[in-house]
Amino acid sequence: MRKAILAVLGILLVVGAIFGAKYLIDSKQRVRPIPPKVVKTVFADKVENTVVPIIISANGNLTAKRRVEIYAEVQGVFKPGRKLFKPGQEYRNGEQLISIDASEYYATVQSAKSNLYNALTAIMPDLRLDFPEVYNKWQEYLNNFDINKTTPELPEMTSEKENYFISGRGIVSNYYNTKNLEQRLSKYNIRAPFRGILTQALVTEGTLVRAGQKLGEYIDPTIYEMEVAISKSYADLLEKGKKVALNNLEGTQNFEGTVSRVNGSIDVTTQTVTAFIEVKDERLKEGMYLEAKLEAKQEENAIEVNRSLLLDNNEIYVVRQDSILDVVSVNPVYFSDAKVVLKDVADGTVIVTRPLQGAFAGMLVKIFEEDNTK
């Protein structure tokens, strides 16, 4: 009897433990609230295919089209001039830029002229006796010979005998030696080849200038060129004389240039073609950084959108039935820094015009509508 009672009590204890555990488990379960459906607002617009101009952007620095690097061909002390040899100094065409002291060399030139004059004087008696028919022209040449002026050209020799006689007396060799010295004497004075401005000065008055030394740089500030590199895909679209829109990086100044030259070869490394754009404007300065926009061609039946809207697999988001997000495949035909030109997008398609974070196909969305009542 006692064993039966203990068995019954054990069974009751086990059953009670099971029900107690089940109660505890059920009491732990919480009812999770159903999350509300979130409908994101998107910016969208209907597609209308048009003719989109392909604008090629390129950047570059301005350089003067006419530029001269000034070098010394002779040696001497830089003499002070009427104008200071400083950057920013303007000069007229033919005006003296640099004067180098040539007093010692000038004496050498004068000595050579004197030797030529003496040689001519010495042959005059023989010319009068042996060649009376040419005596007058040589006498006239001698009368017009001024040692303080440029040596005049020798009279034309009309016969072989006259030529042999004059050359045999060393007149011709003396003449060309003198002209050579005069030519070198002219290099002591450097003159402006055109109206322009000095942009670099590497010497000052009193400096000892040496032959081959660079003295400065001189430019024409009225006309500039900008070198740009264009993809080889558009090489055949660049034509000499084509107008180009230019602007500074801030976008506050606009200019108009013209394609002046196009390189005939393609850069092997970058696969680009070099084009030169000529531009004239008083506001321009050498070294300015400008952006050029060349209209390469026009793409028909296309749209232009921000590059951030194009997905990795050449797809964009569209809105179906005004509430469901979807993707469609597109054909990108041209990329710029911020835009992309797309084709194969049907007219009337509602595309998303601003990036949407966390977007996916099938997502419920709401198209933003501007309040026009304000």
Automatic annotation (TrEMBL):
Signal peptide: none annotated. Residues 66-215 form the Multidrug resistance protein MdtA-like barrel-sandwich hybrid domain. It holds the Pfam family BSH_RND. InterPro entries: Beta-barrel_RND_2, MdtA-like_BSH. Gene3D superfamilies: 2.40.30.170, 2.40.50.100, Helix hairpin bin. Residues 227-297 form the CusB-like beta-barrel domain. It comes from the Bacteria. This is HlyD family efflux transporter periplasmic adaptor subunit. The lineage of its organism: Bacteria, Pseudomonadati, Bacteroidota, Flavobacteriia, Flavobacteriales.
